[in-house]
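User: Hey, my collaborator sent me this sequence without any context and asked if I could get a structure. I don't really work with proteins. Can you help?
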Amino acid sequence: MALVLWAPQWRPDQKDVAAREEAAASGLSGFFGNSGCFARAELRRVNSLGPSVVNSELGASDARFDAVVTVAVRELGPVVKLLSSASLVEGGTEVVLQVTSRRLQPSSPLREFTVHWRHGGPGVVKGVASLPSDMSAALRAGLQPATATQ
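Assistant: No problem. I've predicted the 3D structure and written it out in structure-token form, which is a compact way to encode the shape of the chain:
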């Protein structure tokens, strides 16, 4: 069983914070509920991902965890670029996550990496409706190994 702690780390001028956090929570829940990465995962939103908070969350739980995963959500939202002409638009969704993971039983070194995921292209304009599935897709891309195709 894994303890998954997540916290937003939005930029100061971030818009629609509540909607983005709801989308992040939904995407995280969907991914960890269906990914098969762990037999079970307990997802918790925390205010910070500092070592004292992580240790406190581990210590406050009666459950025995095999792993702890932290996810800092730095970007989750639609992007739009106007190119040389107003009729040329390129857009899509961007997700930026800072992830750490560590096995607790037996203890293993901390793995830390960044997931920077984009989806879109010329003529694409997306809103916030796709953000939960975009969050799940970014997590799949960053946390699950690619399957071999034949």
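In plain terms: Residues 2-143 form a domain with the Rossmann fold fold (CATH 3.40.50). You can pass these tokens on to your collaborator as they are.
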